[in-house]
Amino acid sequence: MKPKPVYEKWIYWMTREREARLREELAARGVRLKSAKGVVCTPLDEINRVSSVAPEVWADTCGRQGSWYRSSDRNGLFLIVSSFPLEGYEEASTGRITRADFSPPAYAGRAEMEAMTADPAFLKCVPPEWPRAEEIERRIQMRWARRLGAEVDDYEDLYLVHTANHANFLKPRFFIREGDGVVPYSIQRSALLCSCCLELFQVLGAGYARKLVAPCPGASIFARLEPDAYLLTERVGKS
């Protein structure tokens, strides 16, 4: 069996002016900076060499999920996802994503997830928009979960996993240890997750140097990431 090709993505956050300058510099080298449309996860696709995600994209297809971005210190900044390091932009670098050979030692159960989502410290972090899924989005989320093999009949059960998973990257209960530190990981299989972009792109959990993130259905569908195949996102440069 052939080994999988190296998967590597470099993450940068920068102002509109810096993004425009980067676009010009890359164009001068014959490299097109692709603009993400509709969803923020397409830059994770291996075929996309270097991409830009404008702030307004976070309010598009996944606008409710984008509320975490809008309530973070990344709000208003452009996200750049590159398959190669960007020389001269080291100060804007925040992360590096690679494939991980990882299987979770345990998944979260319902009681654990209910406790995680009821934590007062976490509840203070939850954007008001996050719980407000319209009926059409609920149906889409359920359809995507089933498409990846989940047996789920109640959106609220799905929402519980979505919320607890984000909680785990803010206050980890499911993690592995590395030296004196912890590495939080996605608490359920891909079919039951949502908005993995928040962890991969250092919007949530940036305080942890390393995180193990399973693709959500959106990333599997729109960025062709393999379900349940964890990615390692490591902090680079500033948090």
Short description:
The protein is of the alpha+beta class and 239 residues long. The chain has eight helices and nine strands. 28% of the residues lie in helices and 18% in strands.
Outline the structure in words:
The protein is of the alpha+beta class and 239 residues long. It has one domain (1-239). It has 8 helices and 9 strands. It has helices at 16-28, 67-70, 110-117, 120-123, 135-147, 155-170, 197-200, 217-222, and strands spanning 8-14, 34-35, 50-53, 78-82, 93-99, 175-178, 181-184, 210-213, 231-235.
Features:
single chain; 239 residues; seven-stranded mixed sheet; two-stranded antiparallel sheet; 8 helices
Average pLDDT figure? 95
Compute the number of structural domains.
Answer: 1
Q: Kindly report the spatial arrangement of strands forming the biggest sheet.
A: 2-3-4-1-5-9-8
The number of distinct β-strands equals 9
Structural class: alpha+beta
Q: End-to-end distance, in Å? A: 38 Å
State Rg: 17 Å
Individual helix count: 8
Into which percent range does the helicity of residues fall?
A: 25-40%
Low-pLDDT sequence parts:
none
Apparent shape:
globular
Range of strand content = 15-25%
- Give the biggest sheet: 7 strands, mixed
Please give the structural blueprint.
Blueprint: E1 8-14, H1 16-28, E2 34-35, E3 50-53, H2 67-70, E4 78-82, E5 93-99, H3 110-117, H4 120-123, H5 135-147, H6 155-170, E6 175-178, E7 181-184, H7 197-200, E8 210-213, H8 217-222, E9 231-235
Parallel strand pairs: 2-3
Antiparallel strand pairs: 1-4, 1-5, 3-4, 5-9, 6-7, 8-9
